[in-house]
């Protein structure tokens, strides 16, 4: 790599992502994680009502997205969540730590989707787990790095092609599986099987399946006509994913029982395809899963590197070249894929998903509270919508924490340690919790 001005990449890339590319990027992250990585785990918590968990997740996400849209319409920027938090709390440790939690949750998502790719790739060979899963996952993460290192145009074109292919393919899978499985009769479940705590807790993972909309806010300054198109992109992406998730969840529920889905949670769609669509349907579903998860990784790596570059430019996180030449963004691409690869090697899918859910919900509650308490009048936002989002986040987080304390208390401990460590680290680095709120926070970005 050659040496470059650190600011040049960001300046050159303004307006480089079209509305179509942005929607493809958002849906690429959401569908890659939501359907293929999380369906089995959501079914394990929600039981036969798991298709409705996706709808509940879409509703909670829609309320949460309102604050992001209002802020992005007013102040679009690459690294949009960092901008929102800085304007709300000032350039101090609170904004920096919450922004870093968002970035970490996205890196966690990359490792989740990479392991899902590996799990599906190995199913035709009847390999379930083992050392090949992290090896293949790391290989996919490296591929995503190479695509992103080639520039925005490669990311945009590839995202559009892969998103169109997978959304069309997933829709066909859902329709065909429902038809072959005899419709919706087997998906209703028994009301007696409904567990309120399990269902509400499952929504935490459903929300994780929709959080790809933050990919859009993180690249806001690079979207054409961002004051209009950021909000449009978020709404379109959430709507597309909600319909897709519901269709596929109903199809899976018509083919497999919840215990069967949970048993095959790392490759639930492939397991559901074979009974109703035969061996050919199984292979096609595996191929579709690989396309979906690969595009999700590419889109996520793109967005995380942009966000970390913004945080570095804002002096909210320290930066070291570690002997590398090139721009800050090129360094952040390397840091992102290295962390994602390590997580893919060290943790299984269930723990990766749980950790991501904890980090994301805490970050989102910080965003909602900051916008409601400090910025809602400035951006002309409806306070009740933001408070509803905050309350829903808190309810889901409490339920999910209760479930994990029963089934895997150590992941709750890991999450708390991670969150506290991030806040303390940023407090030590920045030496202030909120910084100069009235000055730099409101005037530092346009």
From TrEMBL:
GO cellular component terms, semicolon-separated: plasma membrane
Keywords: Cell membrane, Membrane, Transmembrane, Transmembrane helix
Pfam family, one: AA_permease_2
Cell membrane recorded as keyword: yes
Protein name stated in the entry: Amino acid permease
Membrane topology note: Multi-pass membrane protein
GO molecular function, a single term: transmembrane transporter activity
Classification via PANTHER family: AMINO ACID TRANSPORTER-RELATED, INNER MEMBRANE TRANSPORT PROTEIN YBAT
Highest taxon, organism lineage: Bacteria
Organism: Pseudaestuariivita atlantica
Ranges annotated as spanning the membrane: 21-43, 49-69, 89-109, 129-148, 160-182, 194-213, 234-252, 282-305, 326-346, 352-372, 384-403, 409-425
Entry's localization field: Cell membrane
